[in-house]
Structures are given as C-alpha cells and as structure tokens.
Design goal:
The protein is an all-alpha fold and 159 residues long. It is 64% helix and 0% strand.
C-alpha cells in the first residue's frame, strides 16, 4: 500500500531545492534539446510548472466542487508549456515562476488536507489501474514526484 500524507507533500516540495541549482546552468544548455527530438531544459521546467498550475487552477476547484479530476490531452497541453518556454522568458524568471507555483500548490495542500486526500475519480476512473490505489490529489502528487525524478534525470544527463 502506498503511504500518502504530509511526507508526500514535503517530497514534492524538495524538488525546488534542485531546480534552484539550475540558475547557474549555462544558457546554451538551458535552451538546447536534451536529445534529438526532445524538449529543452527550459521547456521541461515550463512543463512542470504548467502541470502545477493546472492542479491549482482546475483540479483543486473541481475537487472543492465535488467533481472528479479531469486531465487534458497531454500532447497539446505540454505544447503550451513548451511555447511559453520559447517565448523569450528569462531563465531566472521561469525558475522563479516555477518555484512560486510549486510553493503555492504545496501551501494549498498543507492548509486544506481534506481537499488533498479526498478520494475522487481521475478521468472517470476511481482507482489507479497499476496500483489499485484510490485516486486523490495526493496520489497524483505521488505520481508527479516520479515524473519530477524522470525529468531531473533527463536534465542531469546533459549537465
């Protein structure tokens, strides 16, 4: 059984410490694809921030309204984040926005634990098909921690 609680939220927050180190990253690495046909480091950071924003602005209000979580088509949603990263936004500003967004999401989950832990559907499904765990915002955060680690490892492969 997967343990979900404040520890999950704090693990999600810990990623900020690592992203803070990216301020020192050379701009050539920041703006170059991590591999052929892959996103840049800037696009990855924007992508992570975009998902945090989606949780704040769409998922949390839906849960508060007694609705399930509905996630968009990943490809088009991620494309919006990549375009934002390519808009000319300075590295320091994008990293600052990422940090501020992640901290805002953390704060909501810590101050509204009932919202974070409430069992809800995800795209109409009650339990994760891989683990059998009931869906909740905390479970999504648990999955997003793995998502963060995946992208951290991609970035570490080029720096």
């Amino acid at each position: 059984m997967i343990s979900l609680g404040k520890e999950t939220i704090h693990r999600y927050k810990d990623f900020i410490e690592w992203t803070d180190t990216l301020h020192e990253l050379d701009d050539n690495i920041w703006l170059a694809p991590i591999a052929e046909g892959k996103a840049t480091v800037a696009e990855i950071v924007s992508h992570l921030m975009n998902w945090d924003n989606y949780l704040i602005n769409t998922i949390i209000p839906a849960i508060k309204n007694g609705e399930g979580m509905v996630f968009p088509n990943f490809d088009s949603f991620n494309q919006q984040a990549y375009e934002y990263a390519r808009s000319g936004i300075p590295k320091s500003r994008l990293l600052g926005e990422f940090k501020q967004t992640r901290l805002q999401l953390i704060e909501i989950m810590l101050t509204e634990p009932d919202v974070a832990s409430k069992n809800v559907t995800s795209n109409g499904v009650e339990n994760c098909p891989h683990t059998g765990t009931p869906y909740s915002l905390l479970y999504i955060i648990h999955e997003f921690i793995e998502h963060d680690i995946h992208h951290k490892n991609q970035i570490l492969s080029v720096i």
